[in-house]
Amino acid sequence: MKNYNLKLKIFRFCIVIFTFAFCILNLGGVAAVSMDSSSFRIESASINDAAGNKTSDNYKLSDTLGQLAAGEFSSTGYIIKAGFQYLHSIIPFRFSISDISINFGTLMPNTPATGTTELTVYFGAAGEYQVTATELGKLRTLNEANNIPDTNCNGGADTCTDSQAKVWTSSTAYGFGYGMTGNDIPSDFINSTYYRYFADKNLSEAPQIVMSSPNVGKNRQATMTMKANISNVQAAGSYQTVINFVATPSY
Amino acid sequence: MKNYNLKLKIFRFCIVIFTFAFCILNLSEANAQQVSLAISPPLIQTVIKPGKAILIAYSLENSGDPTILTARVVSFEPKDNFGNIRLKDRAEGPVRFSLDNAELSLDQPFFLKTKASEQLLLRIRVPEGAPEGDYYYSLLAETTPAIGREGIGSAQAKATIAANILVTISHSGTIEIKPKIVLFQLLSKMKWKIFDSLTEVPLVLVLENQGKNLIRPEGKITLRGLLGTSADYEIVPKNILAESQRLVQATPSAEFSKQLISLALSGFFLGPYKLSANINFGENSPNIFASTSFFAFPFKLVAGIILVTIITVFIIKRFSADED
User: Fold this and answer.
1) How many domains in chain A?
2) B96 shares contact with chain A (CB less than 8 Å)
3) Alpha carbon of residue A97 to chain centroid
4) DSSP string covering B177-214
5) How do residues B131-180 score in pLDDT, each as one tens digit?
6) Using omega within 30 degrees of 0 as the cis cutoff, is the peptide bond preceding B109 cis?
């Protein structure tokens, strides 16, 4: 009987301890802050007692009370606002390219050569973003005597442009172009067989968007596959070009 | 003793193999040269008098391989009404930019090693007599592309990251607010705004800024149904540049058939509904208003019930006939 009472006491003690721990943990959870929907997310931009996460089954809200480094301040003759009113204003806008030298190796006639690079955008603070790409001249030899023209893709009904991707699978369709797979890519890149050619800055062609999103996100990744295919009459040489990727946040 | 020597040999062989594999793996990782740049803050908005200057501290961080960067400022303009921009080749307008850093200046390359950051002190100066209006710029940090290897075909990537600067020049600090709702419309395949009760109701709201200064809408979209039921959807306050249009989003905004929309209403709707937008642009600004309506009926549900009823009646009759 004495043993039974002891067990009962230990059991009760455990219940009290677990209840206490549960309350403490729950309270800790409520103190934390962020605003999520299918299209955007707001996080706390400053840390203080009033800022915090508010969550329910349907939404998650973060807010701040006051701002520290970023925010609005005024003085005689000017007013400055930094960051976005509706978004975290201290997360930097980040852009990465996994490989800045895309090699095709030795180009062989009628044998398409490809190279890939991965583009990553982290835009917690920017809200919306775009990445454009443009070639600074054709893929050409160092002495600029010869170049590999921009691809027309398969041609005919599958003739692509710098803003409209089409299927490029034929080994007798020559040129230089790129395809996109992954997050936030233009909808005309239906699958990995769809290609465009780069807008050429030397021809004053407008840079084309290769990634963009109206919504907040982190680590948005897309893979660009560059492809070159030459004919038997292509002159020998080292063909090179520069692709300029420009990542800009919205306003 | 012989057994011991054999074990020692195997052990030594394993050490050599592991060391070789480690070196190979490490070398292959180091081969791909990557670039990773971050800039903060991504957006600056200022209202400034002619004759004044301000200083903005930008943080530029390199998380990739060591690189040579060049900072410069160019103008931009809105490309479409989704917030995308078109960069120009140079800075236009009366605003003058320079770096206050002792060792850095605009359009001059500088080196940034891995895991290092540089503070760019950008001075924005508006000369006396500069005309009032809005001027939009981007601070660019761009890498210098490497030279390709001889003997192979290659494309070298140049990375550019931007931060936007919105400058409003005003003598008095007064901002011109001339907004207009150009589109407040439900996307429907039918001529009449009739939706199935179980499908999403997509709404598009486009605002036009007819003024000379940028504006930022605030407010809400209200949905009213039968029996006075209503729901409010807050408008996301995004800038609309001078003399441009922008699709305004409300929470929860979404894409509809890969098309960006302002609001996707979901739930079970039944009967007539009225949608209204009430938008303002800060204190002492005019309110603008628009409304539309739609009707919802559970077509799919009713069709399903009718179909099930017909099939059930048919089966019952068939069984009854068989029993007879």
Assistant:
1) 2
2) no
3) 10
4) --EEEEEEEE--SSSS-EEETTS-EEEEEEEEE-SSS-
5) 999 999 999 999 999 877 777 889 999 999 999 999 999 988 888 999 99
6) no
Q: Which residue of B has its CA nearest to A225?
A: B155
Element (H, E) at A72: strand A72-75
| Whether residues A112 and A231 fall in one domain | yes
CB contact under 8 A, A77 and B38: no
How large is the ipTM? 0.81
Helix (H) / strand (E) element for B90: namely none
Domain containing residue A69: 33-82
Would you call A175 an interface residue with chain B, using a CB distance cutoff of 8 Å? no
Does B143 sit within 8 Å of A100, measured CB to CB? Answer: yes
Pick the closest to residue A105 from A227, A242, A232, A231 (CA basis). Answer: A227
Q: What is the CATH number of the domain that holds A235?
A: 2.60.40
Same domain, A103 and A68: no
A174 touches chain B (CB under 8 A): no
Question: Are A116 and A76 members of one domain?
Answer: no
The CA distance from B14 to B18, in Å, is: 6
Domain boundary among A82, A108, A142: A82
Cβ–Cβ gap B39/A93 under 8 Å: yes
| Contact across the interface for A80 and B239, Cβ inside 8 Å | no
- Residue A210 located in a structural domain: yes
Q: Are residues A131 and A153 in the same domain?
A: yes
B150 CB neighbours in chain A (<8 A) are 238
Which of A68, A78, A116 is most worth mutating to test chain B (most B CB atoms within 10 A of its CB)?
A78
Count of CB contacts below 8 A, A vs B?
238
For residues A101 and A71, state if they share a domain.
no
User: What string of pLDDT tens digits covers the 251 residues of chain A?
Assistant: 556 676 667 667 656 665 555 444 443 333 333 333 333 333 333 323 333 333 444 333 333 333 333 344 355 577 777 766 545 455 678 999 999 999 998 889 999 999 999 999 987 644 688 999 999 999 999 888 899 999 999 999 999 999 999 999 999 999 999 999 999 999 999 999 999 999 999 999 999 999 998 776 678 999 999 999 999 999 888 899 999 999 999 88
Q: Which residues in B lie closer than 8 A to residue A228 (C-beta atoms)?
A: 153
Q: Are residues A37 and A98 in the same domain?
A: no
Whether A9 is covered by a domain: the verdict is no
Mutate to test the interface with A, among B166, B218, B236 (most CBs of A within 10 A): B236
Backbone angles phi, psi at B191, to 5 degrees: -65, -45
- Measure A54 CA to nearest chain B CA, in Å: 16
Distance separating alpha carbons of residues B119 and B60, to the nearest angstrom: 6
pLDDT in tens, B37-49: 999 888 899 999 9
DSSP annotation of A110 reads T
∠ CA B9-B13-B18, nearest 5°, is: 150
Residue A100 lies in a domain: yes
In a domain? residue A21: no
Q: Which of residues 82-121 of A touch B (CB under 8 A)?
A: 82-86, 89-107, 113, 115, 117, 120
A73 touches chain B (CB under 8 A): no
A175 and A60 in a common domain: no
